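INFO  loader      accepted 1 record
INFO  loader      residues=221
INFO  predictor   begin
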Amino acid sequence: MSAPIVLYTAGTPNGHKVSVFLEELKTAYGLQYDTQKIDIGSKNEQKEPWFIKLNPNGRIPTITDRSRGDFSVFETAAILLYLQQHYDKEGKFGFDKESQPNDYSEMLQWIFFAHGGVGPMQGQANHFNHFAPEDIPYAKKRYLNETKRLYGVLEIRLQDRDWLAGPGRGVYSLADINVVPWIRIHNYAGIESLDEWPRVKAWVEAALARPAFQVGIKVPA
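INFO  predictor   done
INFO  writer      dumping tokens
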């Protein structure tokens, strides 16, 4: 019998956000999923016509839900929220927007913060440090400094919290799953250590200590 979810992905922070959450759902509920590795380098498989039918934007990750009429979802945050809506029946990784409206809003705020901030800025730092066809010191400095600034925003949020969203000291949720995969590869962006942001460092270590997180960041094999 086929698994309900097919994940089309590659070993990137955005891909790992979804594979980590799928592993968390697998641990919590037994949800099974299949993985199809997409060569986004030499073959540019994400631009092939069959993939564009699934995701017109030609990016990974993308999922197809076989259990819901082969419904496909693209954009990382949309995928996470879709999976939480349909497969996190006990709300272990998110918040109910009716009974927990403020917690739900906080989760969305930090998800959108990552998509408008850490991901794009750190991604640009990676690009100009490793892939740009010419050396542009201004671009390197700009995106590195902006990434550090955003780490500082997270440090402020985590001063008296363990997780980004939820009551009290917070609850591990999509808000955390959605950003830790970027920060765990800070070295690649040119940030050697998280010592400047001790709360961020502790938060990343706590997420990485979860067994499902460790499995998820190794997908695809």
